[in-house]
């Protein structure tokens, strides 16, 4: 069965957004994955359709109400075993490893926070896995959810034209990727490194490996120590 994404959001009109373009858009049109959005506000029961309230203990901003959000989550996850994710800057930073695991599954239910965030009791009570896309604060979970989906969808079977191009990518081997070049042979006085036009595939592989290691050491030494399973 194709990967199914269900988004819980106050801004369903933001979707599919850029996911409707390019590879993910074609894959969506083909049915290689599906996307549906639930409007959290549809699960309110009061006359004013209230989704947020002031933070207990005081302070700035508003908090998504647990009762409304829990109802939306329960609706989405009825008879459903997909992982329930909450986009959140407090979450575990997203990695290519987690992206691969999610892509191998049936899909995901993704909650997009707004305001100051969501009531802790719904995170605990509905066992939401908090996922962060980086150490910075967005105004809402929607762009984060789209980024997560973009990363998942591009590795679904049949989505990426040249399947091989996924395998040497940054992070896949625990390293950043080597530099790329294409024609012209000379650009602004700079030549393509000779080894790449030598036709010697063993030498090319070696050069790429060395460049990848050098780049990783310089820019992301944490990748070298964080991943002892690296070959
Ligand atoms: N007060 C919160 C930030 C709220 S930002 C805090 O300091 O932790 C509003 C919403 O945007 C969040 O609920 C979350 O869904 C989303 N969001 C913001 N930054 C994010 C990030 N780096 N990764 C994933 N989601 C993020």
From TrEMBL:
Q: Which stretches are transmembrane? A: none
Q: What does the sequence similarity comment in the record state about its family? A: Belongs to the RNA methyltransferase TrmD family.
* Protein's UniProt name: tRNA (guanine-N(1)-)-methyltransferase
Protein keywords: Cytoplasm, Methyltransferase, S-adenosyl-L-methionine, Transferase, tRNA processing
Q: Where in the cell is it found?
A: Cytoplasm
Tell me a Gene Ontology molecular-function term this record carries: tRNA (guanine(37)-N1)-methyltransferase activity
Q: Subunit details for this protein?
A: Homodimer.
Source organism superkingdom:
Bacteria
One Pfam short name: tRNA_m1G_MT
Quote the catalytic activity from the record: guanosine(37) in tRNA + S-adenosyl-L-methionine = N(1)-methylguanosine(37) in tRNA + S-adenosyl-L-homocysteine + H(+)
Where does this protein chiefly localize?
cytoplasm
Q: Which residues form the tRNA methyltransferase TRMD/TRM10-type domain?
A: 4-225
PANTHER family, sorted: TRNA (GUANINE-N(1)-)-METHYLTRANSFERASE (PTHR46417)
> Which residues does the record give as S-adenosyl-L-methionine binding sites?
113, 133-138
Q: What does the record give as EC number?
A: 2.1.1.228
Q: What does this protein do?
A: Specifically methylates guanosine-37 in various tRNAs.
- Tell me a GO cellular component: cytosol
GO BP terms, alphabetized = tRNA N1-guanine methylation
InterPro entries listed in its UniProt record: Alpha/beta_knot_MTases, tRNA_m1G_MeTrfase_C_sf, tRNA_m1G_MeTrfase_TrmD, tRNA_m1G_MTases_N, tRNA_MeTrfase_TRMD/TRM10
